[in-house]
Input
Amino acid sequence: MRILTCLLSALLTIGLVSNAEAFCGFYVAKADTDLFNEASQVVLVRDGKRTVITMVNDFHGDVSDFAMVVPVPTFIEREQINVGDMAVVDHLDAYTSPRLVEYFDENPCAIRQEVLNSTRAFPSVAETSDADFRRKSLGVTIEASYTVGEYDILILDATQSSGLITWLNENGYRIPDGAERIVGSYLKQGMRFFVAKVNVDNYDHSGYTNLRPLQVAFESEKFMLPIRLGTLNAKGQQDMYVYTLTRTGRVETSNYRTVRLPTGQELPVHVKDDFGDFYRSMFARQTEQANHRGVFLEYAWDMAWCDPCAADPLTRDELRSLGVFWLEEGTAETRPGLRPSPVPQNVFVTRLHVRYDAEHFPEDLMLTETGDRQNFQGRYVIRHAYEGDSQCNQMQSYRAALIERQEREAQTLANLTGWDVNGIRDKIPTLASLEPVKPEPWWKRLWN
Output
């Protein structure tokens, strides 16, 4: 029995400076997709009606058991299909990941000189007469059959959902219960089904150890991700990351609320060693507060630069490999003090993170380009206290302010994650044991 794996979990495998200013700081950690088990990823390049989708599967096991069924809005020709490079998707993930940055307090006794800124092959088209008769009796049409890299691909159309599901089951695919209604709704919209599985011979000779992403280019008025089929055989909630690359600006969902994650908060220093735990807990709490119906914005930025950089911006060749077809020759301008990039500034990346299930996400994700090019990133800050032994009047007030700051940081961490604030306080070094600071003699400032 073939296993129908859900791709994208649903494409069926289916004080600080303000955000408007430079962020700077030292980047020390990121919250990439590895923090979440079996999180699925999809990259969408969109310009007008033209879309290039890169579908990353999270399949683990015998590749002969892999299968993917994805609703697509139009007929797909061989030249519209490509096998992508997972390393490029990993780079995009790293570049857009929420990040932790750190600062170090200066000596409060120092005079500041400046202000810090901060193997069953698919049936061939020439099938046996019995199989051909059976398929036609079910109303299923194989519109095309391709081999692309290590994948065998069919483009299917059908007159009714029950016939399509019956044909898939009879050809070795295990379709989850409840799929008929959803498949029927796609057929009513005039959508086809992109069906892929591994050509074992090609895979064995490819030299690859993991399945590569599949890419499809097409034109359609619809800008959406079909996630409903992937919820049918899911074990609870699923995480999906959607990266969009456009000319115009930020992308959001039009039929679900798009929520900006909390950003810019100062947290206790020990979060540096527990950033993964912090981010998972914080994200879970945010989904609860959104009644499990929110789509969260983690990053929105011009691809030409970053600040702070969790990874370098993608190169021109990497962007073109993802399907960014409008790139022109030239070099992007650089900004003083920021890392330059050899890519144009008319590529805007949006990273959305959704945790979904059938109960809270009964509809597919409908996407829209907003034209908003304001930069946003999930960014969290730790500040290290000054640990020198300087003696001055300012040191006394600095330590008092530091205790207040650390309490605010503890309260912030508790509010973001739901963790016990007393347990957080226990991890913050106390200043009570420090030797009291001796006031500076008054006469030292007399003639200085």
